[in-house]
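Holo model, calcium ion. Inputs:
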Amino acid sequence: MSSSQPFHLSSPITGPSRKKSRFTYRHLQLLSQSSTSCPLRVIALIDYDAFYAQCEMVRLGVAETQPLAVQQWQGLIAINYPARAFGLSRHVTVTDAKTKCPELVVQHVATWREGDDRWAYRDDAARHIQTDKVSLDPYRLESRKTLALLKEILPAPPVQKVERASIDEVFLDLSAQIHGVLLQRYPELRYAPYDDPTERLPLPPSTALDWHADALVDLDSAETEDDDPDWDDVVMNIGAEIVRGVRQSLYEKLKYTCSAGIARNKMMAKLGAGYRKPNQQTIVRNRAVQHFLSGFKFTKIRNLGGKLGDHVVETFGTEEITDLLATPVEQLKAKLGDDTGTWLYGIIRGEDNSEVSSRTQIKSMLSAKSFRPSINTTEQANKWLRIFVADIYSRLVEEGVTENKRRPKTITLHHRQGAQTRSKQLPIPQGRKIDETILFELAKTLLGQIIVDGRAWPCANLSLSVGGFEDGVSGNKGIDMFLLKGDEARAAMEPPPRSNTATPNPEDTRPEKRRKLVEATSIARFFSRGDSGEEPEEEPIDDFADEPSAQDEVDTHEDQTHKSPDLQQQDIAAYFCQSCQKSIAETDRAEHEDWHFARELQAQESPAVKSPANSRPPGQISTKPKRGGIGTRGRGSKPEKGQSRLAFG
Ligand code: CTP
Ligand code: CA
Ligand code: CA
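Output:
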């Protein structure tokens, strides 16, 4: 009968008696759904090499070998790899950098200047720290361009799952796409014997996995390259192939190089991406996770770079993952609280169930300036408010606010004096077009409120933000339909299925429901086209390790939303089912997918499929899968890393 033994990563069935995969048909199904609990899931993180520097190289059309650095006031914020070869880093001053590398091209970031209605590259920017404000718009725009291309290259949603993690980082959940490739390449995986999803899969077939030039991190001590590969190795290999193709296209079409990490979750993918740079990809196989992790301090892990990490270091007197591994979960929970303790226990074991979330809408926009020296008058402050408003307004226009696609509900002014920060907030009046005048009036009112409270001067930092974005009510179709291509556009125009039945029903043409869903889809599509995303402000602070740079004090701000992806609003109300070529309400997604699953199962009942001769690889006659069709294995000489035998026939 079927094996219903639960799946345990920690207890692989090894040795000569191992005839089947550790993974089941159910796991394959979870893979197709990009389920976060799927033990075969494959996540990639793409991180552009020296991103701002590459943006400038592309913009200026300089040779790839030309050393180049990006300057912000007197500091350097990005250094390309040719310049790094001269020992340059973010901590080097502009003068030192030029001494160390005389042929260095130094490009100052674009700035906003009072009176101008858009940012510009200016030769004299570095001397205008008092009157200019940094604009990262050029990099934001490039970031969007790369994201749009990524979305074009990858299969359409819902197979495609792409999350912009920062200005130069994107997570891809490749699970569903890989599932498709797997079934194509290994038809023996298509149907569970006896329709039993708890049945273990046959082991992977005999071709050696070709990792090309990819970096593979070393395996855990209990594993060897001689150990039999399982499907988790195969899916990683397919993931690597996809990412290699994606990187190639990014380079061919936009001339950007990036590094990538490919692993079972976001956290490991992120760590993997940093392993080999530039222009390389690293695979962290499941069998290598623990060994790889042991090389890091836990303060390098996502969410442990900041205060929480410091607290853990203080509490347990160590920064080493290896030391923490010895701490029982009860102790972690007792010292850090149940949730954090449990989370940390998993994280240091390489477990991370967080989803790659396709929601990429902007939640807020912020424009800020730190003053050195501090400013002392309303007049000075107003000049900056005007610049903030121009900055935010231009981004609102890009976000479609003038077409009433979305609009922010609130405007907030933050004020800093010494270590003390104060904020004032006002609602943005509805029913009236948002323009620069109204934003400026609101900003001045907020400043007035701070002044009335007293202690407004001297002021060390001001920042203005708008937030609480809501979708506009109508009129979206015309504009964003052109963003949909061919079938997608046709399908989006078609009536969506009833949302309260498991079976898609194309006959449902109830007008109000239809309108709502079609609009929702259009909106979702618009925001998934790559033209939006959370906007890390001024400086995309890394989610994973808070490493302050020399630039931190000046013009460095992070969007509030950046750190709390879980709190993101769920604005995308529909998704596009590829099989049906229809938009389906997001709330009905699970049900709808179940329906497809049920239909797939039903398909297995069909005679052609039922016949073992058709569904099994040649050479296998049993009705239960053995290592069928997979031949005998032989031991060769010591294999290369990742090139282990996989030897069959
Ligand atoms: N950045 C910054 N200040 C920091 C960190 C990053 O201004 N403290 C900017 C950099 O200019 C950079 C971009 O954010 O180009 C992305 O940051 P990151 O990926 O950390 O560095 P890269 O410059 O892209 O270099 P790498 O090749 O190591 O990824
Ligand atoms: Ca980068
Ligand atoms: Ca980065």
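Residues 1-16, 474-573, 601-639, 643-649 have pLDDT under 50 and may be disordered. The longest helix spans residues 231-254.
Archived with the compound record.
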